[in-house]
Amino acid sequence: MKLFRYMASAMVAVSLLASCSDDVVAERRPGADSDPLTIKAQFGKNLVGRVTVDGQPRQGVVVSDGINVMTTDANGEYQMYTTGRQHVFISVPADCELPTLLGDPKFYKTLDYSDAAIIQRDFRLVSIPKKTEWTLFTMADPQIGNEKDITDFVGMIPRMAEFASSLPSNVYGISLGDIVWNKPEYFDTYAKEMRNIPVPVFSVIGNHDHNEGIKNDTESDKDFRDALGPTYYSANIGDCHLVVLDDVFYRGVNGRNDYTGTITEAQLEWLEKDLSYVDPDKAVIIGLHIPTKRRNSSTHVTNNQALYDLVKDFREVQILSGHSHNHYTTTIASNITETTFAAVMGAYWYPLCNDGSPRGYGALDFKGNTLVNKYFIGDGCDRDYQMKLYHPEDAVLWNPSKNAGDPYDKILANIFCWHEDWTVEVKEDAGSWTVLPASARLIPSQNGGKCWDPDVRKCLVDGVIPANHGGSAPENNNDHMFLYTPQPGWQSVSFRATDSFGNVYTETITNN
C-alpha cells in the first residue's frame, strides 16, 4: 500500500517535471534542514545533495529516501526523484562520526516540497578512526503514558547514564520501541530526558508509538517521524552494519491494538538495496520492535523468512527486539540470533518484569565483526545479579494451580537471560558442581501452558501485577526456570550459570 501510493504520486510528479526545462530552479519553502542550491539537477530529479568528509567530497556514501538507494559520485553528489518522503538519510560510513543534534542521532535531513521544487540536502561529516571495538547500550519499552510514568522514567535516567558511562569507550545506544504508550505528545519529553544519557541513542518505532487516532499505517507514525526521524535506516560502526526496521503494520480501526507484526514490502525492497552495498563479511545488527520469532512459541512476524533470506549470507546477524516485556533468545540459524530484551519499565513501571526479571537495560560488546559479550543489568542491581533462587515454600508458586503452604520439596532458580547454549550447574553443601539435566527446566507447554515466577505470583492483585497502567499479566510462557530437589537436611544450594561468552553467574540459597 505504501509503495503503491509513492509510485502513483511519483508518476504524476515526473510528468510535471518533464514539462519544465532542466535549467529551471524553482523557489523552495524554507525548512530547518534546507541547504543552498548549488548543484544543477539532472532532468527528472528533484532532490540533490553533497556529502563531504572533513570538507572534502566523499564518493560511495549510501544515500536514501527510504525508497531510492544510491551512492554518491566522485564529487560526493547524489541525485534522485522523490515524492511523499519526509526524510533523506545517509548510511554513515564506519570511518565517520555519527552526526548528532543536541546529542540525538542526526543522520537524516527533512524534506519540504513545493511545485517543481529542486531540493538540496547536504551532509557534512567528520572523519574518525574506524572502530575496532565498540558497545551497544540497549533498552526496550519505556512506554511513558502519563505523568507518573514520566516521574519514574526520569528517576531511572541517572542510573542508566551511570551504566552507559561505565561502559568502555565507543558506546552507542538503541531504544527498541514502545517509547511512549499511545501518547505521541511525550516524544519530545522522552528525547529531552534521554539526552542526559551520554551516548547517542538510535530509535525504533513500536506499536504504541503510532497515533491511535489515525487509522492507517502510512500516517499514524508521523508523530514519531517528526520527533525522532525515519522509522527505518542504517549506519556503519566498525565492521558492523546497523539496520533499524519498522515491523509494526498499524491499522488502528478496531482500537490501539489493531496491528500486525509485519515488515512492509517497501522496507524489504529498501533493505535489499541497502545490503547490496555491505560486505558479506560484516556483522549485521537489526533493531526492530516485535520479535521476529520466539524460541518456545509459534508466534512470529508474518514475513520473517523474507527478512532472514536477505541476511542469510552475512557472517553474523544479531536481531534485537522488545515488545514482550521479558527475556528470551532465539537461535534462528547458525549465523542468525535474536535477543529479545525485557522492558526498561518492568511491568508498566513495576520493578519486576512479568517473567520475574528486574526491569533494566543491556549491553552488547563487538570486536571487529563479532559479538564478544552480551548481558543485561537490572536497574539498581549488581552486574552479577542474573538469577533469583526460591525456597520450596515459595518455589511451589510457579504452578498457578498450587498455593503458598502446599507441600513442596524443590528449589527454583529463575535465570533471567538463559538460553540453550548456557550451562547450568548445581552444588549442594560441600558437594561438587553437577550439570543440571535438561529435565530440570520448566517448559510451559509440558505444564499446562503456564509457568509463573514466584515473585510475580506473590505480587498479583486481582490477577495482575499492579502498576501505573492498571497492571500487567504474568508471563505464562516463562521457560528460563529450573527445579532442583535437595537432600533432606540440606544446608545450602548454589546454582552456577555460564553463558556462551564465558560469563559466570552464581547464587546461593541457605536452608532457613
From TrEMBL:
Matches recorded under InterPro entries: Calcineurin-like_PHP, Metallo-depent_PP-like, Metallophos_C, Metallophos_N, STPP_CPPED1
Organism, scientific name: Duncaniella muris
Domain Calcineurin-like phosphoesterase C-terminal: 342-505
Ranges where the Calcineurin-like phosphoesterase N-terminal domain occurs: 49-125
Domain Calcineurin-like phosphoesterase positions: 174-326
One Pfam short name: MetallophosN
GO MF terms, alphabetically ordered: hydrolase activity
Protein name, as recorded: Serine/threonine protein phosphatase
Coiled-coil blocks: none
Leader peptide range in chain numbering: none
